[in-house]
Structures are given as structure tokens and as C-alpha cells.
Amino acid sequence: MSARLDVVDLIMQDHREVERLFEQMQADPDKRPLFLPVVTALLIAHSRAEELHVYPAARDEADEHDEVAHSQEEHQEAEQVLTQLQELETDSSKFEQLFNQLVEDVNHHVEEEEQTVLPGMRERLSDQRRHELGKAFLQERSKHLGGQPGQATREELAQQAQNVGVTGTSSMTKDEIAAKLDNQ
């Protein structure tokens, strides 16, 4: 089985790439306008792929219920900060404050995910299952690489709601589901 399609390895590769992008943005603030769309696209695509394929498997097959709900909430928080960053000048003090918050929050999320969810998946899911999830993760991630914060579909929001234990979304509109998630 190809290790390069192991979903755990793919997720960790994305984590390292985001860390590298953050470091470049911190080292050279003049390049922030160039890097912000890249880091935004990667974080959104990564989050959507995790939410649709990885988190349900981690929750249902690897018994990572609480960890998945917590990770889902952290995705929502990061997306809210990304939305705010998109509206600011990259040389403003407010951008600096929010960017530092994003870096801290994402680094915290990565650390927790790599210490809880991913080891649980590696331990409890077969190589074949992690390979299947890796393929699904890559396909979903590719679909969303041009995505922006706040552009989740109704189905994606419903999956996010399920990941955090919100029920009864089948009859809700996209906006109603989003409001429920915001109140979590």
C-alpha cells in the first residue's frame, strides 16, 4: 500500500505546508498580499476535505468523537478569522493582530490533531482504509483549492453540524445550519 496516500501522512504534509506559509508571511510582511490567498485556499480546502471524509471516519471508525467535535469547532473559528483578514489591509495593525491569532489558533489545532485524532486513526484504521480516505481527501481537497471562507455548501455545513453533534439539520436551510454552527 502506498504510504504517500495514507490520509494521516497527507494531513500532516498540509500542516507542514501551512506552517511554512505562515513563517514566510511572518518573515516578510511585504509579501503577505501574495501569500494570504494561498494560505486561505489551502486552509479552506484542507478543512473541507477533513470535514467531509476524515472527521466522519475518525468519529465513527476510530472512536474520536470529542476530538472531532473540537477540531470542527476550531475549523469554524479559523474560517471566521480568515474572512476578517480578507477585508483588511495586510499592513494594518488589525491585520497583524488577527494574523497572529490565526497562526496561534492553527498551530494549536495542528498540535492537538497530531496528538489525538491522527494517532487514533493510524492505530484503529487499517492501511487500506487510510489509503481510501487519502484518495478521497485529495479529491475533495482539489475541488476546494479555490474556495474562500464562508462559501461552504448546505451539504458541507450539514456535515460540519453532524461532526459537532448538532442534529435536525435535514429540514434546515443553509443559513439556519450556519447560525446553529455559529452558536456552538
Automatic annotation (TrEMBL):
It comes from the Bacteria. The keyword Disulfide bond does not apply. Residues 7-119 form the Hemerythrin-like domain. Keywords: Coiled coil. Residues 160-172 have a biased composition (Polar residues). The keyword Iron does not apply. Residues 68-105 form a coiled coil. Residues 160-184 are annotated as: Disordered. Residues 173-184 have a biased composition (Basic and acidic residues). This is Hemerythrin domain-containing protein. It comes from Phytoactinopolyspora mesophila.
